Amino acid sequence: NAGVTQTPKFQVLKTGQSMTLQCAQDMNHEYMSWYRQDPGMGLRLIHYSVGAGITDQGEVPNGYNVSRSTTEDFPLRLLSAAPSQTSVYFCASSSLLAGIETQYFGPGTRLLVL
Amino acid sequence: AQSVAQPEDQVNVAEGNPLTVKCTYSVSGNPYLFWYVQYPNRGLQFLLKYITGDNLVKGSYGFEAEFNKSQTSFHLKKPSALVSDSALYFCAVRGFSSGSARQLTFGSGTQLTVLP
């Protein structure tokens, strides 16, 4: 199993550009989530999904969109990047039976918005 | 709203000495509490959890945590620190109200450095 994979590892954007952060898992997990990690603030939940076709907002959803067309993939879209979105983004997944606390985290995507 | 506080940004301890990383929480109802570790350039890894039962829970890599309901604390401990324990540690809480509160809320993290 590859676990949770994220691409790209690093990205530089200009203000106003759009991009999609990719996330995939091969463990057949129902639950997937996106977090951003900023210094001194821990991880904050952006969006999450409990299954294909079902998504919901987390703590900091503004400026981000998600979709879940398959169990495996959960892309995060930035429609118009802003410097405040400079952060490290983590995707995670877990089975609902095991509990979301046992989430497997991907290696992260470092995003710099100029 | 649920919240987690990790009052120490940085904890330094000598190898072989006991270590404690502090965490306090605020949540409606009974909490589910968790500890995670993050090594450089990696995602978080689950260490241990408290759901109910014994107030002392044991987890991976020799870590344990003590739940104290009256002090709303869930401190991470290890009897004898290793240099390889040096990492960023996060406490998290999950509550039981609706919507996002059913998700995990993380503390700001504590950088543990074990000195040889």
Structure description:
The complex is a heterodimer of chains A (114) and B (116). Chain A is mainly beta. Helix content of chain A is 0%, strand content 51%. Chain A contains no helices and eleven strands. Chain A has strands spanning 4-7, 10-13, 19-25, 31-38, 42-51, 54-57, 64-66, 76-78, 87-94, 104-105, 109-113. In chain A, the strands form two sheets. In chain A, strands 2, 4, 5, 6, 9, 10 and 11 form a seven-stranded mixed sheet that branches. In chain A, strands 1-3-8-7 form a four-stranded antiparallel sheet, with no helix packed on it. In chain A, strand 5 (42-51) and strand 6 form a beta hairpin. The model of chain A has no long low-confidence stretch (mean pLDDT 93). Chain B is an all-beta fold and 116 residues long. In chain B, 0% of the residues lie in helices and 51% in strands. Chain B has strands at 3-5, 10-14, 19-21, 24-26, 32-38, 44-50, 56-58, 64-68, 73-78, 87-94, 104-106, 110-115. In chain B, the strands form three sheets. In chain B, strands 2, 5, 6, 10, 11 and 12 form a six-stranded mixed sheet that branches. A four-stranded antiparallel sheet of chain B has the order 3-9-8-7, with no helix packed on it. In chain B, a hairpin with a 4-residue loop joins strand 8 (64-68) and strand 9. Chain B starts with a strand and ends with a strand. The mean pLDDT of chain B is 91. Classes of the chains: A mainly beta (114), B mainly beta (116). Chains A and B meet through strand 5 and strand 10 of A and strand 6, strand 10 and strand 11 of B.
